[in-house]
Amino acid sequence: MSRKHSTREDIRGRLRRYITAHFLVPGGEESLRDDASLLEEGIMDSTGVLDLVAFIEESFSIRVEDEELMPENLDSVDRLVAFVEKKRGLAS
Asked: What pLDDT does residue 20 have?
């Protein structure tokens, strides 16, 4: 297993665990689709986004700028993983 793959899966796992531990995910972690909109599915609201950003900044040692607070970066597990990889310089 390559380091990049391992890192991506670690990021994905940490994000999924945080989301399911801190927000109401019907059916728990097993039912959370990586491509599901966290806002449209009612899993997170705007306050939840701010909580998630604080977790991302602390956990992955990155800074999320105000202009980066958009659904394209933060509205699904897949988008979150890609965003964290990009900010950490790990994107392929």
From this structure: 94
**Locate tokens 């999320």: which residue?**
64
Report, in angstroms and rounded to the nearest whole number, the Rg of the chain calculated over CA atoms: 12
CATH 1.10.1200.10 fits 3-87, yes or no: yes
pLDDT at 48: 95
H/E element holding 20? helix 3-22
d(CA 40, CA 45): 9
Contact (Cβ atoms closer than 8 angstroms) between residue 29 and residue 20: yes
Could you say which residues of the chain have pLDDT below 70? 1-6, 91-92
Please report, for the chain, the start and end positions of each structural domain, with discontinuous segments joined by +.
Answer: 3-87
Give how far the C-alpha of residue 68 lies from the chain's centroid of Cα atoms, to the nearest Å: 13
> Closest by alpha carbon to 78, among 60, 91, 59?
91
Tokens of 27: 């059916």
